[in-house]
């Protein structure tokens, strides 16, 4: 094909961008349909129909003492108005029941609060209060806050920020519309986690950076790091005899009314893999980009120079990224760590708990995967970028001869 018939770099980028987005839409739809076809995924295990409403008034408040319970049961009678057309509109009665058995309670609502509620399942009180409060309505505020974040990404990042928003939405779609339904549908969690990680890695880098040597190098380095993290997780899970039954949430997962039981050990594998993927991708892309700039600016780039520079840059990134992973995992489970620390007789006993072991493995395996990603990304960048330099020199030599 003649050079004038080839697509320009901008046209090629746009074509690859559109194809990637199209493939992503097909991937999300097909993955979700596959999970639904499995028959084990139950969209709603409770069957409750949640409704939105606003509290217009608190009409009564009663406290009944129960023997052996420090705080008795508190019942608030309310009048509420649905924000959607329910029961013909107008105001209806509802109840908020706060008992002393549970340590986690919803605060007493007041007039003007926005809430979600469900039909009262108790026939004895359903006539007096047809609806029971479930929780405060928070999802609207979360969506607005996330929307502001996405707008700021576009404002500050411009087109790059827009591409980041697209890739972020597709990544969230892959997790919530494909991976989680596949897990609940009884599909192999190991295969599902690896497939989603491969999809997220390739689609994110193609959408944000387009088809380029940098993207190729970043995909290679990220894939190697994720593969290492997966293999190491499998080995350590077997050596340490992890069961996956490390938290209250895991117990609830084991008791889910699904056709196929959830493999808790596989859930630990997926959690470590997905948790490490973001940091690994960040390191691989940053290193690939830095070495590309060095190759473009250096007077006489060489394989050895790029490899050495990549290792030096990687050492500087290594400490901060390792700290990021460790602090992220500690911060996400700080309440649990505090509780276990308070009730552990010794440091050895604390570190021997499977929940703590799992958190430590997540941080350490992610950090070790970064250590592997750095030299492999540097090696891939040195090989790919220097091949490009040789190709350019060869074309220049042929033009000079002509």
Structural class: alpha+beta
Uncertain segments are 391-402
- Rg, alpha carbons: 27 Å
Shape: globular
Order of helices and strands: HEEEEHEHHHHHHHHH
Q: What characterizes the major β-sheet?
A: 5 strands, mixed, barrel
Question: Which bin fits the share of residues in helices?
Answer: 55-70%
Helical element count?
11
Kindly estimate the percentage of residues that lie in beta strands according to DSSP.
5-15%
Order of the strands making up the biggest sheet = 1-2-3-5-4
Beta-strand segment tally: 5
Q: Termini, distance in Å?
A: 19 Å
Protein name: YibE/F family protein
Transmembrane segments: 15-35, 136-157, 164-183, 189-208, 215-239, 266-292, 313-340, 360-385
Organism: Anaerofilum hominis
InterPro entries: YibE_F
Question: Would you write up a description of this structure?
Answer:
This protein is an alpha+beta fold. It has 2 domains: 3-36 and 159-401, no CATH class; 51-137, OB fold (Dihydrolipoamide Acetyltransferase, E2P), CATH 2.40.50. It has 11 helices and 5 strands; from the N terminus they run αββββαβααααααααα. The protein has helices at residues 9-37, 123-126, 139-184, 189-209, 213-239, 248-254, 264-297, 303-332, 334-343, 347-352, 354-401, and strands at 51-64, 73-82, 91-98, 114-119, 131-136. A 5-stranded mixed β-barrel has the order 1-2-3-5-4. A hairpin with an 8-residue loop joins β1 (51-64) and β2 (73-82). α5 runs antiparallel to α7 (264-297). It is globular. The model is unreliable at 391-402 (pLDDT under 50). Keywords: Membrane, Transmembrane, Transmembrane helix. This is YibE/F family protein.
């Amino acid at each position: 094909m003649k050079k004038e018939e080839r697509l320009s770099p901008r046209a090629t980028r746009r074509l690859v961008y559109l194809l990637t987005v199209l493939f992503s839409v097909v991937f999300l739809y097909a993955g979700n349909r596959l999970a639904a076809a499995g028959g084990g995924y139950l969209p709603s295990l409770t069957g409750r129909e949640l409704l939105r409403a606003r509290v217009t008034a608190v009409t009564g408040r009663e406290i009944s003492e129960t023997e052996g319970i420090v705080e008795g049961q508190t019942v608030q009678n309310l009048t509420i108005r649905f924000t959607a057309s329910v029961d013909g509109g107008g105001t209806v009665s509802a109840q908020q029941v706060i008992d002393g058995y549970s340590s986690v309670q919803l605060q007493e609502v007041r007039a003007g609060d926005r809430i979600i509620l469900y039909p009262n399942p108790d026939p004895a009180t359903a006539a007096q209060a047809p609806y029971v409060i479930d929780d405060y309505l928070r999802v609207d505020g979360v969506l607005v806050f996330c929307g502001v974040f996405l707008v700021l990404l576009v404002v500050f990042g411009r087109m790059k920020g827009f591409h980041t928003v697209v890739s972020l939405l597709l990544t969230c779609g892959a997790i919530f519309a494909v991976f989680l339904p596949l897990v609940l549908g009884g599909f192999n969690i190991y295969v599902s986690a690896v497939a989603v990680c491969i999809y997220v890695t390739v689609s994110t880098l193609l959408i944000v950076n387009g088809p380029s040597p940098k993207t190729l190098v970043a995909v290679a380095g990220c894939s190697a790091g994720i593969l290492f993290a997966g293999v190491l997780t499998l080995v350590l899970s077997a050596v340490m005899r992890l069961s996956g039954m490390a938290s209250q949430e895991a117990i609830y997962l084991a008791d889910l009314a699904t056709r196929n039981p959830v493999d808790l050990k596989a859930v630990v594998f997926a959690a470590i893999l997905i948790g490490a993927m973001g940091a690994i991708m960040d390191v691989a892309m940053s290193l690939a980009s830095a070495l590309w700039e060095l190759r473009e600016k250096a007077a006489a780039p060489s394989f050895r120079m790029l490899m050495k520079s990549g290792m030096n840059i990687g050492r500087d990134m290594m400490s901060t990224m390792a700290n990021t992973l460790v602090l992220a995992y500690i911060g996400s489970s700080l309440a649990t760590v505090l509780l276990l620390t308070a009730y552990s007789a010794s440091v050895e006993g604390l570190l021997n708990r499977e929940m703590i072991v799992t958190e430590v493995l997540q941080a350490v395996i992610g950090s070790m995967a970064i250590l592997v990603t750095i030299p492999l990304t540097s090696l891939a960048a040195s090989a790919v970028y220097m091949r490009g330099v040789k190709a350019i020199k060869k074309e220049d030599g042929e033009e000079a001869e002509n």
